[in-house]
Amino acid sequence: MIGETTAFFWGDVVPGGYAVVGAAALGAGVTRTLSPIVVMFEMTGQLSFMVPTMIASVVAVGVGDLFNKSIYDTIVYLRGLPYLGSIRHAKSYKLTAADIMKTNLDWISADMTIGQLVETLNKTGHLIYPVVEDDESMNFLGSTTRRQLLTYLDSVLRQSDNTDEAQENILAQKVNYPVDESAFSIAASTKLGKVHFLIQMVGLSHAWVLSRRKLVGVVTKKDLIKAHL
What we know:
Strand order of the largest sheet: 1-2-3
CATH topology of the largest domain: CBS-domain
């Protein structure tokens, strides 16, 4: 309509050019991507409107971000899917990992007995556990999974006799389970923007939070989603 109006008053105007620019800008504004520019060039087969199309599309993306989310983010949000979007509020960048981390953790210590390990697994149902040196120092050693712990316990208990005395001796022994020493951890003072970037780009589900090697909490992807950054 703008193209036809401009052509009516000035004459030497191609109304179809306005349609191309408008269509690309609409697609970019809805999806918050610049790929509609490439699609439009491929559909029309010419590049004479490249500059105005790119300018209009970039402006459309910027204006759209000021008011709402993209159509993809909106669909994910309406369906309740766990999607971690970008940080939208400037005040969120001032927060640190310590501000949003969970502190009520269940951990496995390297000095516990097999009986204590069995008791911990029976009381909790986590899929992964942090491993600390001992309950007093809480020095972080790594992490281990519930499956690895159950496999370890199964192999240990199979080696013992079925007598009560043998079972008690086994439960009193110190544990020697596998530990993933490369478990991802961050400092409690790490800025939330960096935490968000690491979890989003690396694809982490969680990051253990340390304070001078001491385990103090965990930041999960679900925590970041619920925080509405």
